[in-house]
Amino acid sequence: MKNIIFYKSNTGFTKQYVDMLQNRIVPLEVYKVEKINKKLLEGADNVFFAGPLRNNVILGLSKFLKKYKYMKDKNIYVIATGIQPPDDEKRDLVITTNSLDEYHVRLFLLLGGLDINKMKPLTKMMMKLSIKMAIKKDPSQKEMLEQRLNGSLNFVSNSNLDRLVDIYRRVNLRH
After folding, report:
1. Which side of the chain, N or C, has fewer Cβ within a 10 Å radius?
2. More confident site: 4 or 124
3. At a CB cut-off of 8 Å and minimum separation 6, what does 126 contact?
């Protein structure tokens, strides 16, 4: 059985999940999303994509879905990592924003992390500005928001992958 994952990771939290998944789904070929091509997809039974969320957009997903015609008959798993706890409303927003209702994919929202110091300069500046604005809007959240401004939050956990791995196993037992 051929399993392959393509990913995009900006600050490393999505890559942490990719590494964990590689230990739980064996074999699993790993590639950055820029490497996606028809040849790599040939013969794959299960195709995974993992990317970070920014304003409900899964970064790198559009590049991945451009090759959908080569994987539409495969089991496709999409992982989106973010700092907002997943719920039904968030899931619906992500599906709508990324037009995922047009594709046959399984979507998994996983808690990732935030490390402002690993962000690109413009993103870092915008994040700091938005946190400062949030503090002005709700001073009662100042301590928690300042922690985000000055440090790293990491919610990545192997247990967050349990549901995905369970569904992967159930789907592949049928074949």
Report:
1. C
2. 4
3. none
